[in-house]
Every structure is written in structure tokens, then in C-alpha cells.
Design brief:
The chain has 273 residues and is mainly β. Strands 1, 5, 7, 8, 9 and 11 form a 6-stranded antiparallel sheet that branches. The longest helix is centred in the C-terminal third of the chain and has 4 residues.
Length: 273
């Protein structure tokens, strides 16, 4: 997208309107996120930052200004889903802050139409309000499609009980690199040409006690397991192959991601029985 002052949006995205059932904003002006880069839209007040990818990212406020309530989110309607299938939504989040919103931790709530798919684990930041070198963290939320088309909404949320828009309490969060299948930090578009996905095996499935992962590469890789609520429950580094004990986990559905230095090379679902 191109920044043209406050409330600019990335191409093909809309803001979540103030009267949306999931938005707490009290007026149209209180639900307007900002396309953001190193110097725009407001250098003086710190509504700036370093994008995770590309030239811009979206930042939005969650704050109570003693009267108006701000919650600035984005949304997009996506088609092509198969009802009944489970899909991951990947993105990166950061705590951006601004001069009067200095809360150091926050999350994003992800809605599929009007159903909450998940609230991400909080990101923490000790950076100043005008930092252009804050840390981005990867997050994934899963959902089961119920139609071929869904409106996916992202709303910033505070992870504590105080959000008055004074000094430390107000929150500005950043979001960038949102994707479902092929994304800006993934090898997805080139997996087949590298042959990586075809030489990576995750088995057995269903699994009783030990999940095994075997690859055709000796480079360092990482496997991450998530529960059905998108909480990360295990992370393990390995090279070539690894056995992961899942015996202590309750029976049910879990999701995995295997990554290398380029990004996610395989993801999927396992059943613990």
C-alpha cells in the first residue's frame, strides 16, 4: 500500500468498522488503523516503525481515551476455502507504541466472520515509543472453514486489564506478512523446486507416544506443535531426524510446522490417540 497520511490501508484491505459486532470502537474515527513505515504517518508522535517485510505494515490502537474507545483493526474477505478443512493463518506481530500509548505488551484477536478463532500469545517490548528497530514475532491461528468464503478480521487487544489512553496503558500493535498458504517469509512458492517438502516425513499419524520427523537435509530445522487453540506447546530443534514425545498430551487434534532458515517448509495436522 501507499501511505497518504493517517488511516491509509494496504491494497485490498478494509478497516474493521466501529459498528462491527467484534469492534469496541465508539465512532468511525476510532476504528481507523494506519499504514506505517519508518517515518510515516506521524514521526513526532511515534506512529512509525520497521516493517517485517516490504515497505509498510499496519498498526492499530487499543485504548480508552476516557470517552472514545479506540480499536483499530483490518479485515479482508477471502474465497476458495473447502468447508470442513482446517486452515492456518500466519502473520507477524509487534508492539509499536506511540507517545501516549506506551503499553509494552499486546496481542491480536482473529475472527472468522463473527467467530473468534483465537487471540495470539502476547508480544513484549521494552523499546521506546519512536523505535524503528522493534522485534517482530511469528503467530499462527487455525480455523475450520464452514463456507467457501470468509471475512477474516484482525483486531488489536491488550493482555492486561488497564488500557486508559494515558502514558503506559494505551496500546499500539503492528501486524505484517499475513498469509494462509504462500507468504512473504515462506519457501512455499519454491518448495517443489527445492524438493524439500517431498523429502520431509511426519509419522505415524495417528500417533500414540512418539511423533517422528525425518528429512533429507542435515541443516538445522525446527518443529513446533500447536494445540487446537493455537497455543504453542512444543518447540524442538533438530537436523535430519527427531523423535518427539507426545505421550503426555491429551488425545485430540494438534498442528505442526517444520521450518528452516528460509521459513516454513511443511505444516499439517496430527491426531493424538
Amino acid at each position: 500500500g501507499i501511505i497518504s497520511g493517517f488511516s491509509s490501508l494496504p491494497t485490498d484491505w478494509l478497516n474493521v468498522p466501529y459498528n462491527d459486532i467484534n469492534c469496541l470502537a465508539t465512532a468511525p474515527v476510532d476504528a481507523t488503523p494506519d499504514l506505517t513505515d519508518f517515518t510515516q504517518p506521524d514521526l513526532y508522535n511515534g506512529i512509525i516503525g520497521n516493517p517485517y517485510s516490504g515497505n509498510t505494515f499496519v498498526s492499530g490502537v487499543f485504548a480508552d481515551a476516557i470517552g472514545p474507545f479506540f480499536q483499530e483493526g483490518i479485515m479482508q474477505t477471502v474465497s476458495g476455502f473447502t468447508p470442513g478443512n482446517t486452515y492456518p493463518i500466519h502473520f507477524h506481530q509487534a508492539v509499536v507504541k506511540q507517545i501516549n500509548c506506551l503499553d509494552s505488551s499486546g496481542s491480536w484477536a482473529v475472527y472468522i466472520d463473527n467467530t473468534l478463532a483465537g487471540i495470539t500469545a502476547p508480544t513484549m517490548s521494552t523499546d521506546s515509543f519512536n523505535s524503528i528497530s522493534f522485534t517482530w514475532e511469528s503467530r499462527t491461528v487455525f480455523f475450520v472453514a464452514t463456507a467457501i468464503s470468509h471475512t477474516i478480521k484482525f483486531l488489536p487487544v491488550d493482555d492486561d486489564s488497564s488500557w486508559s489512553n494515558t502514558n503506559n496503558a494505551g496500546l499500539r500493535m503492528g501486524i505484517d506478512c499475513i498469509y494462509i498458504n504462500k507468504g512473504c517469509d515462506s519457501l512455499s512458492a519454491d518448495i517443489n523446486s527445492f524438493g524439500l517438502e517431498n523429502t520431509l516425513f511426519v509419522f505415524p499419524n495417528p500417533v500414540d507416544d512418539e511423533l517422528k520427523i525425518k528429512t533429507g537435509s542435515n541443516e538445522l530445522q525446527v518443529v513446533v506443535l500447536y494445540d487446537i487453540a493455537s497455543r504453542r506447546i512444543l518447540k524442538k530443534e533438530f537436523a535430519n531426524s527427531v523423535s518427539v514425545s507426545v505421550e503426555q498430551f491429551p488425545n485430540g487434534i494438534y498442528f505442526y510446522e517444520v521450518s528452516n532458515r528460509f521459513g516454513v517448509i511443511k505444516k499439517g495436522k496430527i491426531v493424538k490417540k
